[in-house]
Amino acid sequence: MIKIKVEKLKKIVQEILRGYDILPADAEEIANHLIKANIMGMDSHGVMRLPYYLEEVKKGNINKLPTFKTKRIGDFTIIDGDKGFGQIVARYATEHAITSAKGKGISVVGAKNLSHVGMLGYYTLMIAEHGMIGFATTNTDPAIAPVGSRKAALGTNPISIAIPTGNSPILLDMALSVASGGKILFAKKHNEKIPIGWALDAEGNPTQDPNEALNGTLLPIGMHKGYGLALIIDIICGILIGGGYGLELQPGWASQGGLMVMAIDIELIKPLKEFYIEIQRYLEIIKGLPTAPGYNRIMIPGEDLFEKIENNKEDIQLDDETYKLLLQLAEEGGIKISDE
Predict the structure, then answer these.
(1) Which of 81, 190, 202, 266 ranks highest by number of CB atoms within 10 Å?
(2) 21 plus 165 within the same structural domain
(3) What is the bridge-based pairing of β-strands 106-114 and 217-218?
């Protein structure tokens, strides 16, 4: 593992992106997003994705200079991202949701024709920072088989919800597979086994080999429950919003279906200060419950992630392979990396 300063890593990633003629503001946003994922311990959505994104830029699958098209229907807005970086399109959609919800109560924004959006919690936390409840979901290329099948036809279709509390927000950020596709790819990249219960091979048998898992199918959380949720999100993000769905989505690191972001303005429903007092009282009750054997405390969703943010705010650990790839990209772009 390599220990590296957060600011140094941001500078390296930004300069690599700018070497591919990515706009400076976009390069900064993508770097911030990827590194925040690393800081929060979500390495499968962090800077390890950068080489694969850039490969898609070379192929023309990601548009460096997109022109967004916005269509508004009542309180629902659909944005065509023109094949832009998912992080840029999704941030634009999130900012639109926040602005539209303010003073109205609720806003729903859909986005299509975009690349991989990264960590969904990034966007819901943006909404929570404005004193609103944030919800986001997206559908991905096929990775989950319907219960009873061994053929992947549904995405891992993650869901994120962030709720402001007056302190650290509550943050739910989860895929509908037992493990995200990114975690399987991370295990493959590092020649690691995966736990039994994460995936099946192409013949429908449990496997610990990430390569067999990628050629087979991931298992949904709660079996039929996760399958049902994944199906519904495919319909909302893929069919309703128009992002594509199921077997028509090509697999790949930059692949993405549609995105839905929703913001709820708490202040219009209940005074924010009153909401915070009540939610803190509720969380105190939850955390004060007796612990079960093997547990020393009860955690609120997202609490562990915010602890990692605090611990990693200055330095983070990168695996050797990812750091070597960054050095290689920097060398190809003529970027010098100091040892400071």
Answers:
(1) 81
(2) no
(3) unpaired
